[in-house]
Amino acid sequence: MRKMLAAAVFRVLSGVTQKPASRVLVASCNYSNDAMFAIKKCDLYRLEEGPPVTTVLTREDGLRYYRMMQTVRRMELKADQLYKQKFIRGFCHLCDGQEACSVGLEAGINPTDHVITSYRAHGLCYTRGLSVRSILAELTGRRGGCAKGKGGSMHMYVKNFYGGNGIVGAQGPLGAAHNMAALWKLPCVFICENNLYGMGTPVERASASTDYYKRGNFIPGLRVDGMDVLGVREATKFVADYCRSGKGPIVMELQTYRYHGHSMSDPGISYRTREEVQNVRRESDPIMLLKDRMVNSKLATVEELKDIDVEVRKEVEDAAQFAMTDPEPPLEELAHHIYCNTPAFEVRGANQWIKFKSLS
Questions:
Q1: pTM for the whole thing?
Q2: What would the pLDDT profile of 147-202 be if each residue is shown by its tens digit?
Q3: How far apart (Å, rounded) are the C-alpha atoms in residues 160 and 105?
C-alpha cells in the first residue's frame, strides 16, 4: 500500500514544472506597494521653504532606481578594467559612488528637459537614455559608440543631452546660449556635484567658502545629500517646479563622493586615505542605502535584488565584449560630422599634405 501511494505521489509531482528556488521565494512574498521614508533636510539660501523631508517610494520605482544605479556602478567598474587593459585610451573620469546624483536627477525631471554637463558624465549619459553598449563602445573608440567613436569619455550625446564637455566650466556658456536660443523660455537649474575634491585638492583648501549653494549670490540655492537617491529626486522636483513657475534660476549643490580618483591617471589615495574611502562605502554608499530601505520596508527581497545584480553583470559583460570587438571608424571618416548641414570641405590632418573630407 505504501509503495502504491508513493508511486501515485511521484506521478503527480513529476507532472509539475519546477521553478527556480529564488523565483518561488519571490512569488511567495507579500510585498508592500510603497513605503514612506524620511530624507535629510536641505540647507537653504534665500529660500523660505525647501523640498519635503519625507517621501513615498513605490516598489516599481525602487526596483528601477536600484537597477539603474547598479548598472552605472558596474559600467564604471568595467570601464576601469578596459582602461587598464588599454582598450580605453586618453582621459577617463569615472563616477562610481555618485550614482544617486544621476539617477535621482533623472527621476525628478521630464524626458523632454534639457541637460548639459561637464565631464564625469557616464552616469548621466545612461540615465538620459544611452545604452551601456553605446557608452562603452564610445569609450573604446568604436563605430557603435554614441558619437561613432569620435567623442570618448567627455563627449557623449543623446536627445536633450548635450555632453559631456571636457573644459572646466564649458557647460555654463553652452547652457546660457541654449537658453537664449529658446528665448529664455527654459527653466534654468545650476547643479554643482560637490564630491569634496577638486582633482586632488580638498575643497577646504581650495575655497574660502565651501557653501557652493550660496555662490549664486543673488540667486537662491540649496544643498542636498547627493548620496540619497530619494533626497536628490525630491530636491530636483522642487528646483524644477521652482523654475517652471517663473521664479527664475536656482543653484543646487549635491554633496557626493567619488570612489575613483579624479581620472584614471589618479590613484585617488595620495591626498586621501584608503580608510576614508572605505568609511564612505560602509556608511553612505547610495546603492546600499536604497537596498536597505527596500528590504527593510518589504519593497523587495535580498534574493530579488541579487537577481537584478546578475542581470546587470551580464548586460555589462555583453556590452564590454561588443566594445572590444566592434570595428573602429575608418580613417577617411575622421572629419565627418564637424557641422550638421554645411557643404563638404577639406580638413587638414596632422600632416599638412594629408587632408580629409568633411561631410555632415
A1: 0.88
A2: 999 999 989 999 999 888 877 777 777 777 666 555 455 568 888 999 999 999 99
A3: 14
- 225: which strand partners? 255
Q: Return the amino acid letter for 301.
A: T
Q: How confident is the model at residue 3 (pLDDT cuts 50, 70, 90)?
A: very low
What's the sign of the alpha-carbon dihedral 74, 80, 82, 85?
A: negative
112 grid coordinates: 523632454
| CA distances (Å), origin 14, targets 8, 9, 17, 235, 249 | 10, 9, 8, 55, 66
- pLDDT more than 90, % of the chain: 72
What contacts 69, CB < 8 A, 6 or more positions away? 99, 100, 103, 229, 286, 287, 290
Tens of pLDDT, residue by residue over 258-272, are 999 999 999 999 999
3-state secondary structure the chain: CHHHHHHHHHHHHHCCCCCCHHHHHHHHCCCCCEEEEECCCCEEECCCCCCCCEEEEEHHHHHHHHHHHHHHHHHHHHHHHHHHCCCCCCCCCCCCCCHHHHHHHHHHCCCCCCECCCCCCHHHHHHCCCCHHHHHHHHCCCCCCCCCCCCCCCCCEECCEECCCCCCCCHHHHHHHHHHHCCCCCCCEEEEEECCEECCEEHHHHCCCCCHHHCCCCCCEEEEECCCHHHHHHHHHHHHHHHHCCCCCEEEEEECCCCCCCCCCCCCCCCCCHHHHHHHHHHHCHHHHHHHHHHHCCCCCHHHHHHHHHHHHHHHHHHHHHHHHCCCCCHHHCCCCCCCCCCCEEEECCCCCCEEEECC
Up-side HSE of residue 299: CA atoms within 13 Å toward CB?
A: 23
